[in-house]
Amino acid sequence: MDGSDISLRDDRRPSDLHDPDELLWRQFGEAKSAEAFARTWLALQCRMIPGVTSGVLVLRSGGAADRFAPAAFWPEGRRTRPHLGEVAERALRERRALVVPVPQPHHEGAAAPPRLRYDVARPIEVDGELQGVVAVDVSPRSERDADATVRQLEWGGAWLEIARLRGDTTRAVVVRDRLQTILDLVAATFGQARFGPAALAFVTTVATRLDADRVTLGFLRRGRARAVAVSHSAKFSRSSNLVRAIEQAMDEAIDQQALVVWPQPSDWRPQVARAHAELARQHAVGNVCTVPLVEGGRALGALTVERPGDLPFDPVTVELLEVLAGFAGPILERARRDDRWLGAKAADAARDLLARLVGPRHLGLKVSLAVAALVLLVLATATGDFRVASDATLEPVMRQQVSAPFVGYVAEAPARAGDVVKRGQLLATLDDRELRLSRLKWLSQQEQLTRQYHQAMAVRNAPAVGILAAQIDQAKAEVALLDYNLAHTRLSAPFDGMVVAGDLSQALAAPVERGQALFEIAPLDAYRVVLQVSERDVAYVRPAQRGTLVLTGTPGEPLPFVVETITPVSTAREGHNYFRVEARLDRRLERLRPGMEGVGKIEIDRRLYVWIWTRQVVDWIRLELWKWLP
Q1: Which has the closest alpha carbon to 199: 221, 211, 217?
Q2: What secondary structure letter does DSSP report for 263?
Q3: 3-class secondary structure for 55-109?
Q4: Of the four, 114, 257, 342, 389, which is 20 to 30 A from 396 by CA?
Q5: Is the pLDDT score of 342 beyond 80?
Q6: Cα dist. 126→36, 60, 288, 431 in Å?
Q7: d(Cα 277, Cα 567) in Å, to the nearest integer?
Q8: How far apart are CA 426 and CA 15, in angstroms?
């Protein structure tokens, strides 16, 4: 509390100090205003307490928590003693009852010292909240009688507390009823699916609740208010003089951004109400009130209420209309926007966007659109490398098979798939025991036939000599064949490379057939790149085009290549067709292995970025249009 806010000077007209108690009680019971209630209450308190010479009642000022001002004086018209104000201020600050003695001057020759006067102050609290203080100046008495004065003020203060609680309850009831009325009026719009019926139900309900002759709802269109609903009228002519006059009244209130009442009350703020006066004069309207519909500081439209001449717009109704416009305006505006056709919504959205762009605010939107425009400009004018990307695999340039030279059995197999081998390195050995036995057999038979041949020569048996000579040649051929097979029982690598297929380590002593592929050997220094190019991109690929391969195993070492062959046969995979494109590597790494996979990109030429990034979408749209168009 600020002590300077308490002024103990009574500027009101003095009342009659000799009114009987009955008149005061009647005035107290019939008090309609807070001022009259405080004045009569203080007067009753001061008359009920013997010896009160003056009193003051200080109450909270304007609802502020720290500002208090005198609400009543007793006697009226008499200046209260300054020290009484000091006691009242102290009681407010300390929030407790005070009994302060006031010394009286001692006159020489007096038989006894003078008795003390007292200033008594007691704070007034409601629900623990400080509401004010009452202070009185009482005639000389004992300290005990001064304490009794505090108790009497406590009993009397209960009347103020009850009155304040009743006032709060009454205000709560008024607020509740007003809120219920607003909710009922707004709820009238929710029962309709379309904007037209909802607006008509709203204005009709408002007219019924406020006893109005006519209620008109209008919204701004191209800067002017246009009526959209008139109470109790499903149809109305927008070109009629009445509707045009109402719309002019709406424009008048919207331009001033304030509620306009006609006839204007004597204590009303100065306003331009020419259109309202003209509406009342031309169409015999008693009272007109227009309240703008506003959302976020932006005017949406207005609501015009017309009432008969004997039913003016009181402050409660005016306040109700202001709150109702704040609630119902945005709801009706959204319903109106949602009920329009798609073209109108798109045009409205474009106008809003344009207004944001050229307006003083929305810096973030402007910067974003500027950046987007710059990006589009760059994409539409800048060019870049157009490359076709596809999955790629490394394959050896050739593969050489190591086959079984004869029918036999596996004796040992030290090599298997994945091994890096040198030229002449042993891959596998076939069992040669049967071959050696067959060779001994044919050698023995050859010697026997040779002896028989010599005997036939000795006896000059020419036919026998011819037959034995042929049999000897056959035995020599068999021995030569067995020697050849024995020389090939050890299978070795034909060159330096890697075993890409074949594993006989789990098939020892297993039979093999002549010509059966046992191993596949691929060189380590001769690879080709096989790219699976989609049928959408294969038309851009030509031999001799260059590209870059990035393998999954070596992503940091790109490998250049040159396209050599485009196979004109497609392969279906995952619902798409792919063509095999073979390319030659221009660079080799020791870590390369057959079967490595990665991604290859073939450089086609330079194109616009916007074409590069949108070509697949454009091609898809063209294909779909071709399928659906007749």
Answers
A1: 217
A2: S
A3: EEEEEECCCCCCCEEEEEEECCCCCCCHHHHHHHHHHHHHCCCEEEEECCCCCCC
A4: 389
A5: no
A6: 20, 12, 42, 116
A7: 91
A8: 135
DSSP 3-state of 485: helix
Tokens of 247: 């719309």
Structure tokens at 405: 């030279």
Mean of pLDDT values over 521-537: 85
What pTM does this model have?
Answer: 0.43
Q: Structure tokens of 395? A: 């394959």
Residue 63 and residue 14: Cα distance in Å, rounded? 27
DSSP code at position 314: -
Contact, 229 vs 200, CB < 8 A? yes
Average pLDDT rounded to a whole number, residues 307-333: 81
Q: Tokens in use for 391?
A: 């999955």
pLDDT tens track for 171-203: 544 555 555 665 666 665 555 667 778 788 888
> Could you identify the residue written with the tokens 């007793």?
74
Question: And the tokens for 549?
Answer: 């391969």
- All domains in the chain, ordered by first residue: 3-105+112-172 (3.30.450.40), 188-339 (3.30.450.40), 526-628 (2.40.30.170)
Whole-number Å distance between alpha carbons of 371 and 185 = 47
Say how many residues make up the chain: 630
Here the tokens at position 85 are: 């104000």
Q: Tokens 């157009």 appear where?
A: 386
Q: What percent of the chain has pLDDT over 70?
A: 83
